[in-house]
Amino acid sequence: MKLNYLSFFIFILFSIPVTIYAQNPIKGVVKRTNGDPLPHATVKIRGTNIAVSADENGSFSINSKQELPFFLQVSSVGYKPQDFQILKVDSTILELTLVEDALLDQIVVTSRRRSEVLQDVPIAITVIGGQIAENAGAFNVNRLKELVPSVQLYASNARNTTLNIRGLGSTFGLTNDGIDPGVGFYVDGVYHARPAATSTDFLDIEQIEVIRGPQGTLFGKNTTAGAFNITTTKPTQVPSAKAELSVGNYNFIQAKTSISGGITKNLAAKLSISGTERDGTIWNTKEERKYSGQNNLGFKGQLYFTPSDKLQILLSGDVSIQHPAGYPLVIAGVTTTERSAYRQYAKIVSDLGYQQPKINPFSREINTNTPWRHNQSIGGISANIDYKIGNGTLTSTTAWRFWNWDPTNDRDFSELSALTKSQGNSRHDQYSQEFRYSGNITEKLSGVIGVFALSQNLQGLDQTEEVGKDQWRFVQTNNTGTQALYSTPGLLDGFGIKTNSTIKSLSAAVFAQVDWEFLNHLHILPGLRYTYDKKDVDYNRVTYGGLQTSDPTLLALKAAVYSNQQFSINTDNNNLSGNITLSYRPNDRLNAYGTFSTAYKPVGVNVGGLPTNSAGQADLSLAVVKPEYVEHYELGVKTKLIKNLLINVTTFNTNIKDYQTNVQSPQLGVNRGYLANAEKVNVKGLEVDGSYQLERFLTLNAAVAYLDGKYVKFTNAPLPLEETGHTEVIGGTATQVAFKDASGGRLPGISKWNISGGAEFSVPGSLATKVGRYFIAGDASYRSDYSSNPTPSKVLNVDSYSLLNARIGFKSEKFSAFVWSRNIANKNYYEQVQAAAGNSGLYAGVLGDPRTYGATLRYTF
């Protein structure tokens, strides 16, 4: 990535010449909503560079020779910018009022597909402003999770990403492309189907709404667990620009810039660029290079056409390119399995002439012999058309998005040449169309109705998995008989598979929800959704390499490691689901509600390789995975006890039938896992979040989530790592089993306790000629321990951990400068641990970032 191009672009922005106009005086005073003067506000004539600052009493005088009518733009740090139309110029003293930007009880959301005050919406929602996210260093969803306790995101790389809300949404662990996410991810109304979208850097974010619980009657795609509804800032007619530069340890550098302005009377444009680089935090002693770094470049362009008050058209295009130093896992430990002593990890590596790797994961060192690579490009184009009809708005959202994935992984996690290469190269294209009408039908009745269609084509392109010269010892069960022939020189050297697969899917839905105030202050909100899903799969896996021989015994040994596999399947299903909510809103201080909803996640398909049956053929009974069916109950109350103190409480209980879970197979060739159904799971919990704002001096927020997730019934769960090789007496014979009853065990990825909180204290002041506020802020988060394996395990668990972040600096209307640090205590922690392929006892972990620190400069003009 060439950040010098970005620097040149910023230089051009700063070099824009100013124009001076003739002068006619306009006098006025800027006030707060309570009538008090607002000192040092900026008053600017829209469309020009003529601007002044109000004095200590909020008074200003500005000169202009503009043709009437024209607009005054009034702004001040901590307040919402406001345009005031000037129809005539005389001696009258204008009184201009600004509203505080962060009044907690005035936050507006669009989660119900129309603009509403957050506290009036009977849905559990957390809202994070784009500026707040940027200041906290949350420049992507992975970092945002520290601010929202009910969000869980686990990623060993962009493809293998799990995004959950309240512990539900996607399968935990290695991604299988044949399953749909249960958490909707929307940017400016466009649904993003691939989890890799969560890894890209935010560009000009205005607001992030995290919506908890099923919302299928409001959004186009199924949202069985919740949704991220992200909106970006739109282009403006008034010329404006923003530049931001951050630097930090590990040679971190991040540059962002955007420029916006009018092209013609009703057409505005905006271009945004973001670049991020950082050295890796993990050292490969064998290659002598760093991994787990960042190298991201993103572009976004928009055209905003507003020919009338009724019609708005937004055209957007974006692309994000990521070529990081890859994201390796470190060896986290070795456990003893129930296999024979001959098949324990220590014995295997000893027989190969290696020493068991040093188990010191937080030394941040690896010793792998295959380079790690996780390159991707992701982007698309979209058109949003809003047309006001009657008391509502008809919206059309049309989009095409793509994703290219080019990885390399060393899946034995060591210097051994065992499972040396794993490359899940993919290409994804999606086309989506949504038509939606929302608005007020009568004074007491409002609602939304829409139709949605999504077509996807996901291709696996020569996806490669290859073993090396040491793999024979991992698959050899003993050194006698036929098994002894696994040591035949060159038998498995460079032996592997190449897989080409295609999933073509279609999802279509009709949805509607109304809000009817049938009694004074008492609302009923019924909703209904009909969904149709269809998936067609072609899968073709072909072996290559290894010893070229015609010996049937040796060929049989090779086939036990990798074999050809080909199948084609198609499946479809439909579903009718809905919800009903009762909401009591006697005043603007209380909103109490209860919800019952049903939801559905579509049928899944397996394209990571299928386990084989006794005849050595693909077990097609596992090719299709049944849909999930959700029953959800929720009670909530939103309160404003005193001015600027908000406390919201939610309790919920969710039951899922045929829960789709990812099963790690001991067989090579399916090491990415395959999907299966657990008969029933339950997640229940309690969430409490509060916010308080004392004028502009102090802002506090805190949130606590208690989650209890269990397999109610899972009779055919895979064995945990330490029980691999377990035998039971069946029919009088000791028989090795591959599954167990995990009923009553906890679901993976769910901490019982999740806590976050933050505070910011600021005082007025000046920096050189800039009038603004000095501030100090911090946020902290805590997660209790959680299971990191589909079946509860004694070893594959992540211990509890706490993180502390802080920043201190100065901010004004146009300029900010601050220093920051994340993970100040340099806490060592895992985000995920997982068994290595082959289940010999080795397991690896994804490390959280160490302490990072740096400084940020931001300028708006």
UniProtKB/TrEMBL annotation:
Q: Which UniProt keywords apply?
A: Cell outer membrane, Ion transport, Iron, Iron transport, Membrane, Receptor, Signal, TonB box, Transmembrane, Transmembrane beta strand, Transport
Pfam families assigned to the protein according to its UniProt record, in alphabetical order? CarbopepD_reg_2 (PF13715), Plug (PF07715), TonB_dep_Rec_b-barrel (PF00593)
- The domain of life is Bacteria
Topology in membrane: Multi-pass membrane protein
Checking Gene3D superfamilies in the record gives: Carboxypeptidase-like, regulatory domain (2.60.40.1120), TonB-dependent receptor, beta-barrel domain (2.40.170.20)
Limits of the TonB-dependent receptor plug domain: 118-227
**For this UniProt entry, what is the primary localization, expressed as one broad class?**
membrane
Give start and end of each TonB-dependent receptor-like beta-barrel domain.
Answer: 367-821
- Please verify whether the record's keywords include Lipoprotein: no
Places the protein is found: Cell outer membrane
Q: Which family does it belong to?
A: Belongs to the TonB-dependent receptor family.
Q: Which PANTHER family match?
A: FERRICHROME IRON RECEPTOR-RELATED, TONB-DEPENDENT OUTER MEMBRANE RECEPTOR
Q: What is this protein called?
A: TonB-dependent receptor
The species is Pedobacter boryungensis
